[in-house]
Design a protein that fits this description.
Length: about 325
């Protein structure tokens, strides 16, 4: 069976602290803590496994004791990965969740530059496996100080092999978007605003589809309305209000995983994205990134409404 190849080069060891109430500038004592492998690529693969339609193969850099622990836990989860070992320690992400306000605060360790030989090693492994793929994903940031060449060459390889490519990354991404092929940009509204120079969804999407040879664009905005466009069609998605959020961490990655899986399965673009949004909402009801209940997904999917709009209005 064909698989989804996921480039998530910058993983993190996730530490999530739960507080009855979190106050800045004060001593805060957590009443619960969780540790697990995370990062956009890992979360995508975990959500893909929850969905069960395609297997996923993760490509990542990992180093030091933290990297070793992270890879060991991926093995325990039976999440397939090709980990390129680097000299620097894998970063840690600490998330503080306030139960009272349901507000999340993230503290992310710095990452370190990856040397050219490690980039070459990952691209060689990627090229060896690309024939097994039905689609490719570029997920998240590249380690600090590392150029965009990894994503640029991966996008070219995907295009040469006529593979759909989901881009869930925004920093310095314009050269990658110029590659074209069967490319879909899936990021959030803040991120597309950095690319397009506007937070107006219509204008941002129109900028991206005009400026770059993209097949489609899908935009999330947390609990607020989401947007998608393909082949001149433009949709707005109203999401259900969640009363008791456990953790929103990883919801965007979950949306991307189920959206892309359904798109690869032949589901219409707007319905595929609605499925991703429902899964993202369901992910908010669990503490583990990229994990959700199918029953929650089904219940929430019925509460998502889709409206077709004119992309040229107000633009």
């Amino acid at each position: 069976m064909k698989k989804i190849i996921v480039l998530g080069p910058n993983p993190a060891w996730q530490k999530t602290l739960f507080f009855p109430e979190f106050s800045y500038g004060r001593v805060n004592r957590a009443d619960q803590v969780q540790y697990f492998p995370s990062g956009k690529g890992i979360n995508f693969c975990r959500a893909s496994r929850c969905w069960g339609k395609f297997s996923a193969l993760l490509f990542q850099f990992a180093g030091g004791e933290i990297g070793s622990r992270l890879c060991s836990m991926l093995d325990d989860e039976k999440l397939a990965h090709c980990s390129i070992i680097t000299a620097h320690e894998t970063r840690t992400c600490t998330t503080c969740l306030c139960r009272k306000t349901q507000v999340m605060t993230e503290i992310i360790d710095p990452s370190y530059p990856v040397p050219p030989e490690n980039i070459t090693e990952m691209l060689d492994e990627f090229s060896r496996h690309v024939g097994e793929a039905c689609g490719v994903v570029i997920a998240g940031t590249i380690p600090t100080g590392t150029g965009i060449e990894l994503y640029l060459r991966a996008a070219r390889i995907a295009a040469e092999n006529n593979l759909p490519l989901l881009v869930d990354s925004w920093q310095n991404i314009k050269p990658v978007l110029e590659v074209g092929g069967k490319m879909i940009l899936k990021i959030n509204l803040d991120e597309i605003a950095e690319i397009a120079g506007t937070r107006d969804p219509r204008r941002a999407i129109k900028y991206c589809t005009t400026r770059f040879p993209l097949t489609g664009v899908a935009i999330t905005d947390g609990p607020d309305n989401a947007y998608a466009a393909i082949e001149g069609h433009f949709w707005e998605f109203a999401l259900p209000k969640l009363e008791h959020i456990v953790s929103p961490l990883g919801s965007g990655d979950t949306a991307g995983a189920i959206f892309f899986t359904e798109y690869l399965s032949g589901t219409p673009f707007e319905d595929a994205f609605a499925a991703g949004l429902a899964a993202a909402s369901a992910n908010c009801l669990t503490p583990l990134c990229g994990n959700f209940s199918i029953d929650d997904y089904r219940r929430l999917r019925t509460r998502i409404s889709i409206g077709q709009l004119d992309i040229d209005r107000h633009s």
